[in-house]
Automatic annotation (TrEMBL):
Protein name in UniProt: PH domain-containing protein
Keyword annotations: Membrane, Transmembrane, Transmembrane helix
Domain of life: Bacteria
TM regions (residue ranges): 12-29, 41-59
Amino acid sequence: MIHCKPKKSTYFSLTIVLIILLSGLIYLLNDFANSRNFGLIFYLISAPLITLVILMLLVKMMAGYKFISIGKEKITTKIPLRGFTKTYDIKQILAWEEEKVLANKKEFKQITIVFDDKTSFSMSNHEHVNYEDFVGYLTKKAISKKIKAVKTSQKKTS
């Protein structure tokens, strides 16, 4: 079985950023309550902005916390925060696609799998371990379900 789970380093980094943002928000609100070193407009803009960034980061962390295992002709998906676990046969895959993007000399890859009950599952190589092994197994067992990438070319008009 190949088990793909979230990388600890990714969640550690996101947690550190979250702690820094929370301490900044706490400092800002404490400063407003006690000494008011900045103008009112600064507090009215920065506190909601920091809160919004914190909420978006928390949603990103919670949405990305998922596990997938593949082997013995079965795929098991698990989303612990929703209490969701489901096992599929390889035959139940309707389609799958791997997207690749090159940015800053690094290749970001994401795979999306759609099952016959119309649920889908996505994961990326920068957020999950054993990504390459998972794609290799899926390529061997379900190559006919892979969606071919359509390359579009832009014509220059003069």
